[in-house]
Amino acid sequence: MCKDSRSVDLNPTQSILAAIETVIFLEDKKSIQIETDIDTNIGTVMGDTVRLQQVIWNLLTNAIKFSEPHSKVIVSAKKVGKELVIKVMDEGKGIAPDYLPFIFDRFSQEDASSERLHGGLGLGLAIVRNLVELQGSTITAANLSGKGSFFTVRMPLTSLVSKNSTLSTKKKEINSG
Length: 177
Fold this sequence. Notes:
There is one protein chain. This protein is α+β, with helices and mostly antiparallel strands. The chain has 3 helices and 8 strands. Strands 1, 2, 3, 4, 5, 6, 7 and 8 form an 8-stranded mixed sheet that branches. Strand 6 and strand 7 (149-160) form a beta hairpin. The longest helix has 17 residues, at 49-65. It starts with 7 loop residues before the first strand and ends with a strand.
């Protein structure tokens, strides 16, 4: 379980929505549309609100960075059995299948050439994996056959809510510049 002293039962919806609100103001000139499908009565998970928000923020900023202009990023959060399943999907070029096993390694970049289009040290997803695992959870990455990629975070629920309410297909457009 989470080793952090700030670990509490939390409603993950607030962390997810806060991360989405944060990326809306990125100075990204791509006009990316964020769609959400978030079950607002998921239950609670054991974790750290700030760290969960950092995880979602990092996944969203990567999705925006690697997406084509005027495309979509989709964020969903659903109760599946006794787990919260959070997915962040983009419409970028996807992740090369031979690179997928290394996506969460430190200092790992699919394009490590000096002419690469996107900056970074290759630490973001390694940190994300560490934060997710510290909360007793898992993260996986998958390729959508050249149509983007998706990341899935699975967190064990500590309490379940039976009545479902969905914040569905809420669209936000990132159009800064």
